[in-house]
Structure prediction request, 367 residues.
Amino acid sequence: MRVNPTLATAFWNSVELVAKNVWVLRSYVRFTALPTLTSDVLSMVNASGPGAYFNATDSKLYAGYFSVTAQLGATGIAVTTGVWYRVDVRVNASANPWTIDVQVDGEAAGQKTNPVAAALMNTLRLGTAQEAPTADIFYDDIVASNTAADYPLGAGQGWCGVPTADGTHNVAGAADFRRGDTTTDITNATTDAYLLVDEVPLDDVTPDTNDHIRINAPPNAAEYVELVFGPAPGFAAITGTINGVEAIGEVFAAGTGLSDELFQLNDNGTVNTIYDGRGLAGVTTGTYKRKFYATAPSTGVAWTAALVNALRLRYGFATDANPDKSLMCAMLEVDHVPPSVDMPPGLGPSFAEPTERAMSASIWMNH
Prediction:
């Protein structure tokens, strides 16, 4: 993402997340033009905007917050243009005073405290919201957590997976699963159902007429369509150390009545439910459902690249398909440290241009 204001505030706010006292953030940040005023760079949305601040007087990043002017910690870390920096932030607002910590490529700036009462926050921010500078800033590979001990989240970059093949379907009969709103069945012999849910980027909230997997009227809760995850376009098979995996699906229904659906992750034979929509009212626009996995369900410990490369999804498990429910798209977002020169800046050579920051941005939330 690029923030490029001219004597203006310019920022992106995340959608509202679960409100928490503690937030831990990581983003890679590259300045093409340093901000001309002291302002926030990576922060949480709050009246005081706690997080990482750029100090225009000495070109350093500090822990800080805003109260009339920027209030900064005792020491900062020097930054310049043309370099990707890994910026780690922790905001702990669980008590008075708050504590704000910042690291740049693993080097700690001085902690800053804010003497105010405990508070909840549910939105993260990239950009300059507290002042109106001229600046040009790029962001990539964003991760957030609610666990204080996760700080610093450290090195990583985003990897994206989507359905790239059909797995082993379990469909008992005809007219149980359909290709969108058509009357064409998805059966055990189908090999291209994955094409119905492999959109990059994810679909918007308007359901596609015929580009989704629809549960029509399965006779029992054992039936499902299975799809194999693989690298999204432009990605290779994942390698290296896996920091975390998030599975995302988008579902919708033909009406608002009660009916059934399950969206599950098949981790090498161990099945875990991402979203349980059994007996829930249908929503007629696309609704995103997701689940974060710090560890692999199949082993209970840290993920390996081999486990991620073998992941599958299952959709179905309905006894009541009135109204019909559908899966619009599915995706994996994985934060990993690859064992090669394609590592993020700070682990390997800096890339020549912001657009060469390796893979796609990734946000996963550890709730």
